[in-house]
Amino acid sequence: MNEIEIWEYLLKWCFAQQNMQNDPTKWNKDDIIRIERELYRFIPLIRFYDIEPTDFFYKVYCYKDILPQDLIHDLLEYHIVPDIKSKINLPPSRKPDLKYPLDSTLIKSNHLPLFASWIDKKDTSHYNRKNNPYDFKLLYRSSQNGVDINSFHKNCDDKGATIWIAKIKNSTQLIGGYNPLNWNGNVWKTTADSFIFNFINGGNISTSKVSYVKKQDRAVLCHYNYGPTMGNIYCHYNINWSNEDRGCGEIYPSIGIPKNFEVEDYEVFQGKGAIETEYFAIRNEIIRLLEKSKVIMEFTMFNDNFTNQINDENREVNEKNVNEKRLKNSQPGGKYQKRWNYGDFKLNKIIAA
């Protein structure tokens, strides 16, 4: 069911409850108050951003008097101003993101445009679900792939840029970080593009804070004894984490991440831009075609060799026939019968990629 249909059924039910007509031009102040009170508790359940602009204008905006004014203003901005960031926390879209599907138990699809905006350092004009250029592919989930450090490195090393998200135990808080480099090695790595973040309430993106690296030579620690470690945030055993100064000062400006905490679960995603994703798709297709061409070429060469073998045998037979015809001619009344077989030819298996 489309979101606009859900909205229309909700209105129809509210009007029936209050015994009111659905024409807002005929409402008085008391009517507006009554329907507003009836509707208020259901507003957070409607995915208004999934409603198409035409439907919004003709089927939602006409009821602006019974909707929160900040919601109406935010929706107008969303439909009119490109790349605007939502100021109201609404449920994530019911629409599947077919282009870049999300596999996560910790975050929702509305987190992804925010991560993409942080990666590209878009301070004012943030991405939205429609123009998010990044594909976040799940590489590792501690509760699924194993809580040991080796499992993290097995799944995440040599994967390029990654973003990790961890849920702090017995809370709604999510923390995480973006590493634009690889996790392999045994050394501190330098970058100017890494950041850490904190959601006081993981389900509400408006509670987020982001902190970009200040001391670039201590941005990311890659070590076989640690999970994702950035600045003063250390993942010791995938469960026990810490965020304490170890004599290097403030590597990332403080954003309210606890000093010591346990993690309930954490996930690591490979972050690829649209151009990079398209490049890998094209590269894989070229490889597939080349492998297929190689098989065809090998078959063609094999077939050519077989054909040459047939021709050679034919030539030998023809020469034999000529010689025997000469012999036959020299022996009147003699008879000649030649039977020959090329043998069985069988192509056992050809695998085309």
Q: Overview of this structure, please?
A:
Residues 334-353 have low confidence and may be disordered. This protein is 35% helix and 16% strand. The chain has helices spanning 3-18, 29-40, 53-60, 69-80, 112-119, 142-145, 149-156, 274-330, and strands spanning 134-141, 162-168, 174-179, 187-189, 195-199, 208-212, 220-222, 233-235, 240-243, 260-273. The strands form two sheets. Strands 1, 2, 3, 5, 6, 8, 9 and 10 form an eight-stranded antiparallel sheet that branches. The chain is an alpha+beta fold and 353 residues long. Among the domains are: 3-80, no CATH class; 109-275, no CATH class. The longest helix has 57 residues, at 274-330. α1 (3-18) crosses α2. It is built from eight helices and ten strands.
